[in-house]
Amino acid sequence: MSGTVTIEKRQSRTTRWLLAPGIIWMSLFLVLPILMIVYVSFWTQTTFNISPEPTLASWKLFFSSDTYTGALWTTIRIWLIVLACTFVVGYPTALFVGLFIKSKTLSTILLVICVIPFWTSFLIRVLAWRPMLGKEGAINIVLQKLGIIQQPIEVLLFTELSVIIGMTQIYCVFMVGPIAFMLSRIDRNIIEAARDLGAGFGRIFWKIIFPLSLPGVVVGAIFVSVMVLGEFATSGALSGRKVNLLGNIIITQVGSLKWAMASVVGVILTIVMGFVIAGFLRIVDLKREL
Amino acid sequence: MESRILKPALGLYVALFLLFLYGPFVVLTIISFQQGPEGGPQFPIIEWSTYWYRHIFGLTPPSRIAPLPFGEALLRSLTLAFMTMVVSTVLGVMSAQAFRRKFKGSGAVFYLIVLGMMVPGVLTGLGVSLLANNIIGIERHWYTTAFATHVAYTFPFAFLVMLAILNRFDSSVEEASWSLGVDPWTTFRKVTFPLIFPGVLSAMLFAFTLSLDEFPRTLFASGRDQTLPLAIYGTFAVEIHPNIFAFGVLTTLFSFALLSVYGILMAMSVRRAKKMAMQEDIE
């Protein structure tokens, strides 16, 4: 009896030692920095510096300025649109890869093909949309050659649309992967049984396939949301500085050494982020799905 | 199923999807062969040439366009990615190993680790810079502050990969080793580690590639000396030339080489595992 107790004790000590480095690293370099942002958002900003006298000045400035509150709404709008686009674009692909292809090898190959573009630098991938969407860009050239349009479409580049197109392309794979994974785990016998009982594909899809793929959708949505909400490079490079997200505001504020204001925007971004992730995690328990 | 209509339709859709996914890369490759130094990063192609590839390596006569300042940045990024890979894989294996036993507060620890991949990079970068500047009072460098943020980002990926591997791990082999009186550390080294090695390789690959291309965290946290993504970002502000696209093609090819090495290592470890299993059967 006492023997088992000591083994228990030793094991739990091992567990503590195994976990300690990771917990310390994450506390010091993740949790503490975020708390620091919250703290600094109440600091006093002078022209080129900040000092720890507490003040609400930066917070008041944020909510009294249309530029800043506008950025908040733009961020939420772009996030929702891109989230919807990645879902709409990604789901049918995931359906094909995860459910319709019987061969495991073939579906793995298709997934690898989807991931290959990620081995090009993120920033260069963003930049590649410029010759694609421009007035003399690839899309306009192709459409004109096909005779679909006479005049080049000019709204494609340096607008909100170009930001949405770019982000959808860059992030849709994060939707495809998790959904395809969940779909591939569906027991085919259930679908078979439903069909034997006379259900059509539409009914099978809404009653069986979609609900079972929902955890994948949620995981994909978390990935996409995290990345889109913190974005600034795509919006900066493809909108010609017309689309300002919260991320862009942080960059410009830090650039002009307005650390307190950058922190206020950072806190707002953290709050938005927290709500979004908590909302998604209410739908699905991430730890159980692993 | 209505596979006669639905499956081909979905297949066609996937083809269009891949076109969307690869379109920019195709255009990027085409434009990297633009004539230089006059040709810009747009259509039409004036004349096909490898000018911009030679330009990257400094093999062209000097022109008004400066060569990309990427040499040192690339070296820094590779070093940083290697450091990040080692540390986050070690942390990932350790934490995942701990999670094999139930313990109090496991939910909280799980979310603490996973938080690293959920917090936008720009926030981690900002927070760490604030901490370094205003509390500790140290200079920011790619190998200190930026390194800390990189590990905080890639460690969760390594952890999740290892967790998935260890969840499917048959622990009876370990128990056999323990019951033969082998101490836990030797058991881990000789029994557990070889078996989870494919997973470790995946975790390493994840950490390395994520760190190599990491940008928002590095932007604030790295201080004066730039890593590769920062150097690329620097060219955004000035005029863009096709050399950046040529560079993109080259780095992609480099990544493929890296991926092939990973594939070969993976195949070797799988073959070795099979061989070992066969030997056991004979014995």
TrEMBL record, chain A:
Tell me, in one coarse class, where this protein mainly resides.
membrane
Biological process terms from the Gene Ontology for this record are:
transmembrane transport
Keyword Transmembrane recorded: yes
Compartmental location: Cell membrane
Transmembrane regions: 17-42, 78-101, 108-128, 161-183, 204-229, 259-284
Q: Which UniProt keywords apply?
A: Cell membrane, Membrane, Transmembrane, Transmembrane helix, Transport
Domain (ABC transmembrane type-1) spans 72-277
Q: Name one Pfam family in it.
A: BPD_transp_1
The cellular component terms of Gene Ontology attached to this UniProt record, alphabetical and capped at eight, are:
plasma membrane
Bilayer topology term: Multi-pass membrane protein
Task: Output the superkingdom of the source species.
Answer: Bacteria
Q: Which InterPro entries match?
A: MetI-like, MetI-like_sf
Q: Describe the family membership recorded for this protein in Swiss-Prot or TrEMBL.
A: Belongs to the binding-protein-dependent transport system permease family. CysTW subfamily.
Name assigned to this protein: ABC transporter permease
Q: Which organism is it from?
A: Paracoccus subflavus
UniProtKB/TrEMBL annotation, chain B:
Q: How does it sit in the membrane?
A: Multi-pass membrane protein
Q: Which family does it belong to?
A: Belongs to the binding-protein-dependent transport system permease family. CysTW subfamily.
Q: What is the name listed in the Swiss-Prot or TrEMBL entry for this protein?
A: ABC transporter permease
Quote the subcellular location field of this record. Cell membrane
Q: What are the GO cellular component annotations?
A: plasma membrane
Transmembrane ranges? 12-33, 73-96, 108-131, 151-170, 191-212, 244-268
Write the record's keywords in alphabetical order, separated by commas: Cell membrane, Membrane, Transmembrane, Transmembrane helix, Transport
Q: Name one Pfam family in it.
A: BPD_transp_1
The GO biological-process annotations, alphabetized, read as:
transmembrane transport
Domain (ABC transmembrane type-1) spans: 74-262
Broad class of where this protein is predominantly found: membrane
Q: Species name for this entry?
A: Paracoccus subflavus
